[in-house]
Amino acid sequence: MRIKIENVRRFEDNLIKYVKGKRAGMILNRDVVGVQSYCDTREQCEIVPAEFINQDIHISVDRSEPRVSEMAGIALNGNVLKPFLITKGNLDSNELLQNRVLQNQNTIVVQLTTGTMNFEFCIRWVKEIVDPYFVNQRKIEGLPRNTEGMLLVDNLAAHCTKEIQALLTKCHIILLTMTPNATHLLQPCDVGVFGALKIYYQQEKVGISKMSLGQIMANAINATQKTATIITIGNSFRACGIKADVQRGKLVAAIDHNAFVEMEAQITADNAAVPDASTEPVKRKRVKKFGALNVPSQK
């Protein structure tokens, strides 16, 4: 998909308006990543009869391993939110405990019955993880209780419902969404965290043909702890045009215009490599709004 440079410039303007100058600990990025690692997604050894050694052979794989998604959150100051793990698998509390997956301590685990994501889980994530984080961060930094936090997310519909916007407004949190099709350039979790998380996860799985749900979740938590370091988080935000500067003894957000110049050059090159559509689509795509969604418009 082509990315409109003017949309990226609008997003930079939004960062200047809503993010610049805020305390680094009050700026969060949230995204969801799948952490399952099937056996056909990595190199493996197979034992076959000698006469077939030089032949192409298709081997069936077992994909019955439970699927797990992680809703992750990182802050500009290097803080990491508690992993929010989502699964369709049957939860066995004893098996989770055996694997040190401690509900409400090192993670929150929820069971999904339909689809892959819904706004009810986003509501719960805000109530149980995000709002308590900002409440505690305001106390740590000596900020007024109504100091606004910033939550940067993509344009997934489940992340941006009216109910979520209303809840965030009540919690003094601004919801700032990104321009469509550009999260690989603008979203810190995508740019620098999730790739490393999956590498660490697969490293933990070496030699294990199939994991139980508790093992998957334990490894997801472990991979998150290894990946989301203060250096990785800082580099990820900086690559997306948001850096942390020291002003009057406080760590605050600043906007790196040079990062956006580099993004525009990349977008120009990418768009040049993608031919224009020769025909108009039969049905026009619905254009999603992006920016600060729960801020009252100023007339």
UniProtKB/TrEMBL annotation:
Positions of the DDE-1 domain: 71-204
InterPro entries membership: DDE_SF_endonuclease_dom (IPR004875), RNaseH_sf (IPR036397)
MF (Gene Ontology): nucleic acid binding
Pfam families on file: DDE_1
Protein name: DDE-1 domain-containing protein
Taxonomic classification: Eukaryota, Metamonada, Preaxostyla, Oxymonadida, Streblomastigidae
